[in-house]
Design brief:
The protein is α+β, with helices and mostly antiparallel strands and 342 residues long. The protein folds into 2 domains: 4-227, Rossmann fold; 237-335, no CATH class. It has 8 helices and 20 strands. It has helices at 43-51, 93-103, 108-121, 137-149, 167-184, 195-201, 219-224, 229-234, and strands at 4-12, 18-27, 32-36, 58-63, 66-67, 78-81, 155-159, 187-192, 204-209, 212-217, 238-245, 249-252, 255-258, 265-272, 281-286, 289-292, 296-303, 306-313, 321-326, 332-335. A hairpin with a 2-residue loop joins strand 4 (58-63) and strand 5. Helix 2 (93-103) packs across helix 3 (108-121). It is globular, with a radius of gyration of 24 Å.
């Protein structure tokens, strides 16, 4: 079993504001969980607390049911893959992968067997004699993964490991890391600020903001049923439109809509960009900007004085304006004070 449990976890520096603010989270054995959020939300700090690279302020961290608060990092049986790769520049690929095994006093024959097995699985067999400076970014990242894999740890921690790669290589490496998880059948805790990585890789996504968990659910649940405005806006391309509800009705650019919820007064509706041409009520508005993305276009415009966008297929007619087709069924209603979705 390789479960990780965080109980009432708090981290503050010099007794000031909590960077991690009383977090509770259970990560199951063999789960691939993604921590996502904007810069400064605490996601990388959580990895460092789990690994033991930083001390917690209060609370508990359990690995396999055992409290590890006071256990040295090297004894937690965790592998950490860093954003910067953290390879030893003077060592060959072989020695970088073998380093952790040598520190644990494995015999030479076992080290050689393990290193070559890992190198084969990551297509590094022909690179074992090279130094890191002779490798591409993708190759260096595979070496960093190999160094982590070779020890067969209970838990893998990955802190934005793909952020230094170009777009095409990121897509390739996402697939390789996901395959690696399926092969190793162990627990992965992965940090990213990239929502695409979160949606495509995670069994579960934990959305963080200001040191607190906003929502922890499957990618489908996070996308289709966000709990608040922050989650709705962080995952996917979402529009927020200010409205005023009177007697169960509100309007957008003079077109009237109905609401079947018990809400009155000022509120916010949220509509995903890809849902802006799905409905039976038409609104035509001037276009500000059009972006071509390949298989579709992103069109920018204003609704009720709110900046909005729509993702539309190439064959959808536009000129200087766009006709939006909206439906109440595709709208989320947000309480303006709590910012929770109603």
């Amino acid at each position: 079993m390789s479960s990780v449990v965080l109980k009432n976890l708090v981290k503050s520096y010099d007794g000031k504001k909590n960077v991690i603010d009383n977090i509770d989270l259970e990560i199951k054995d063999k789960e691939f969980i993604v921590l996502v959020g904007s810069s400064g939300c605490g996601k990388s700090t959580i990895l460092r607390l789990i690994s033991g690279l930083e001390e917690i302020t209060s609370g508990e961290i359990l690995i396999d049911g055992k409290v590890v608060n006071n256990i040295h990092p090297k004894d937690r049986d965790i592998a950490f893959v860093f954003q910067s790769y953290a390879l030893y520049p003077h060592m060959s690929v072989y020695d970088n992968i073998a380093f952790g095994l040598k520190m644990r006093k494995y015999d030479k024959k076992t080290i050689d067997s393990k290193v070559r097995d890992v190198a084969k699985s990551l297509n590094l067999e022909d690179l074992l004699d090279r130094k890191p400076r002779q490798l591409s970014g993708g190759q260096r990242q595979r070496v960093a993964l190999g160094r982590a894999i070779v020890r067969n740890p209970k838990v893998f921690l990955m802190d934005e490991p793909l952020s230094n790669l170009d777009a095409n290589l990121r897509v390739q490496m996402r697939s390789e890391i996901k395959k690696l998880h399926q092969k190793l059948q162990t627990t992965f805790i992965y940090v990213t600020h990239d929502q695409t990585e979160a949606l495509t890789m995670g069994d579960r996504i934990v959305v963080l903001d200001k040191g607190k968990i906003q929502q922890a659910d499957s990618p489908e649940e996070i996308y289709n049923n966000p709990k608040n405005k922050f989650v709705a806006g962080f995952i996917g391309q979402m529009n927020f439109i200010d409205i005023n509800i009177q007697n169960g009705k509100f309007n957008i650019e003079g077109i009237e809509f109905n609401i079947n919820k018990n809400i009155e007064g000022e509120a916010i509706i949220a509509i995903r960009a890809e849902k802006m041409i799905a409905g039976d009520k038409s609104i035509t508005v001037p276009i500000d900007i059009v972006e071509m993305t390949g298989g579709e276009r992103i069109v920018y415009f204003n609704l009720n004085n709110n900046k909005c966008s729509a993702r539309i297929p190439l064959d959808y007619f536009i000129n200087d304006s766009i006709t939006l087709r909206l439906s109440e069924e595709n709208m989320y209603f947000i309480d303006k004070n709590s910012e929770n979705i109603i």
